[in-house]
Design brief:
Blueprint (H helix, E strand, L loop, with lengths): L1 E9 L2 E7 L3 E5 L6 H17 L1 H7 L3 H4 L8 E9 L3 E12 L2 E13 L7 E6 L4 E6 L2 E4 L14 H4 L4 H11 L1 E4 L12 E2 L13 H11 L3 H10 L3 E9 L2 E8 L3 E4 L5 H18 L4 E5 L10 H11 L4 E6 L2 H6 L5 E7 L2 E5 L3 H8 L5 H7 L10
Parallel strand pairs: 3-16, 3-17, 10-15, 15-16
Antiparallel strand pairs: 1-2, 1-4, 4-5, 5-6, 6-7, 7-8, 8-9, 11-13, 12-13, 13-14, 17-18
Helix pairs in contact: 1-2, 7-8, 8-9
């Protein structure tokens, strides 16, 4: 998982350093920069999978990703990672000149977590044009294609072909899913083509295929139990194939059923959110990101979403953004990171000590403090 995120000059993130856990909850007001933090990680994924040029274009161009409150013309991203097999650091810098850019440097260090007698380290430095492996004190160069060094793109996607460990890092940084309010759209109400079920598409275009897969290929009891708790009189769902299309239907007690085209926005949102989370309990990814899950759902179901998030974090790394006191009350206080914006610059940190003590002593819940005065960042820790 990603254990630390260090960003310079990306959008409103002039300079942030965030430790990340199996569950991290970014809480703050609208416009504070929560989405920019999430997008900085997604920018790395998009740059590695589709190229830096496309990742920048997807976000509106160079001028829309560089921090506007700083005179520096360089974006830096540093990601520390760790899992049962390896740990290390991947980082790169993008230097910007007017509407052009180039990769100033790119670095990677990996240490394997195998038996101490068989530990191996791998280092890459684009400025030195070196890729080396260290094993039992001996340092040897790793041969790689000469043409992978490109001033406009990152080298990691090509380097992953020369080392299993480098490929593991590539997978860790790109094997992630992001969900926000785009998950609810007319796509859910129309018949859908039967297609690849996992992962659930960010716009929900394959929701019926995902539901069909979970019903036929897995034990979907946890999903059904969550839906029964969240949707009044919910009994089950069914998926019907019509030619190359699939249509989902929700069945209610005592004996009613409706196609998704007849369901409310709130019911569709709950169905999609719980399906998205349940798929990765069964088929874990490296990272699951969910932005403001409390929007467009019934307030009384917020705690069910919170419980599903906690369950998911036992199987995947999870990052949530939220400004809902009801949802914050369900999630662990230690997972909370406060996000604030002052003078168009985002800052991130832990809850101030006096607020943490009030929660620990059960004088107030985290949600109550959020309602009464809002969270304050503990400046002494940052």
């Amino acid at each position: 998982m990603i254990t630390n995120l260090h960003i310079k000059n990306y959008r409103s993130l002039k300079h942030i350093n965030i430790p990340l856990n199996s569950l991290t909850v970014l809480c703050g007001l609208n416009g504070s920069g929560k989405s920019n933090i999430v997008d900085s990680i997604r920018f790395v994924k998009d740059s590695l999978k589709f190229g830096v040029k496309e990742a920048i274009a997807k976000r509106g161009g160079i001028r829309d990703i560089i921090c506007k409150t700083n005179n520096e013309n360089e974006i830096q991203i540093h990601i520390e990672f760790s899992n049962s097999d390896l740990n290390g650091l991947y980082s790169f810098s993008i230097e910007i000149q007017e509407v052009k850019y180039h990769i100033k440097w790119e670095k990677l260090s990996i240490k394997t977590n195998k038996d101490s007698k068989d530990n191996k380290s791998i280092y890459f430095d684009s400025t030195q044009k070196t890729l080396t492996a260290e094993h039992k004190g001996a340092i040897k160069p790793i041969i790689y294609p000469d043409n992978i060094m490109n001033a406009n793109d990152l080298a990691l996607p090509a380097l992953r072909t020369v080392s299993t460990e480098i490929n593991d890092v590539f997978q860790l940084l790109t094997n992630s899913s992001y969900y926000n309010n785009n998950i609810i759209s007319e796509n859910l109400r129309s018949p859908q083509l039967l297609t690849e079920p996992i992962p659930l598409n960010e716009q929900g275009k394959n929701l019926c295929s995902t539901l069909k897969y979970l019903q036929e290929k897995t034990d979907n009891t946890p999903l059904l139990n969550s839906l029964k708790a969240a949707i009044k009189n919910f009994n089950n769902y069914s998926v019907e194939s019509i030619g190359e299309y699939v249509i989902a239907r929700i069945h209610y007690l005592p004996d009613r059923s409706f196609e998704l085209s007849q369901e409310s926005e709130g019911t569709l949102k709950i169905l999609a959110l719980l399906t998205a989370m349940n798929q990765f309990v069964i088929n874990p990814h490296s990272l699951f990101v969910l932005e403001e899950p409390e929007l467009n759902i019934y307030p009384e179901t917020t705690h069910i979403i919170g419980e599903a998030i906690k369950e998911l974090s036992l199987h995947n790394q999870v990052i949530i953004t939220s400004h809902s006191p009801d949802l914050i009350d369900v999630l662990p206080v230690d997972a909370l990171k406060v996000v604030q914006k002052n003078n168009d610059v985002t800052t991130v940190g832990n809850i101030i000590k006096r607020q943490r003590e009030a929660i620990a002593e059960e004088l107030f819940s985290a949600g109550e403090i959020m309602r009464m005065e809002g969270f304050t960042i503990d400046e002494e820790e940052y």
